Amino acid sequence: MASETVAQEGAARKVSLREELTARRKAMTPDIIDERGLKVQARFLATPYYQKARTVALYAPIRGEVPTRDILIAALQDEKIVCYPLSHVHGRILSFRAIKSEAELEPGRLGVREPTNSAELIPVDQIDLFVVPGLGFTRDGKRLGRGGGYYDATLKAASARSRRVGLAFGDQVVDTMPTTNDDVDMDLVVTESETLRGLYRDWDFLDT
Q1: Whether the model pTM is above 0.90
Q2: Sign of the CA dihedral with 148 first, then 90, 107, and 187 last
Q3: Which residue from 138, 155, 167, 152 is spatially nearest to 65, judged by alpha carbons?
Q4: How far apart are the first and last CA of the chain?
């Protein structure tokens, strides 16, 4: 029973933390998001994880998430394979399609931009680097999502050589966070002012 109580307390803390972090995000104006977002993306593009990756999974931002357009443009220029998740999920694991230009993203059924059906499907185990959104992160790489668990399930299904980097604004970094065995940690968390070491595993993306 004790473990059940601990789990219930952790779940309740996650709910309250989500509410607090959602309120912080809503307080950010579009101008602040754009200004800070440029800095987050520039800092991300300087990481060895980005520079070494061949196949990069991005996300299309919603409701105050860190923008990713600069990363998309840079990655296409660098001739990387760039893919985005689809809103139609079979089970818990996200499906990804690659795009060759920003024009291949269009609003999906949830209003989030996603690749057109003509774009090439990319198996999850072929993705080197996952760029991951979140409501909150800790300095050691723990992540709080919106509660669906899709990214956690997807990252667990990915190749062991894959790596994950969380993008966040400084306001989203918290000292502690309740976690469960289902939660997946980040290798790095990049904000507008610093790059936080999470798991910080090697970035050669070698097959293991």
Answers
A1: yes
A2: positive
A3: 167
A4: 40
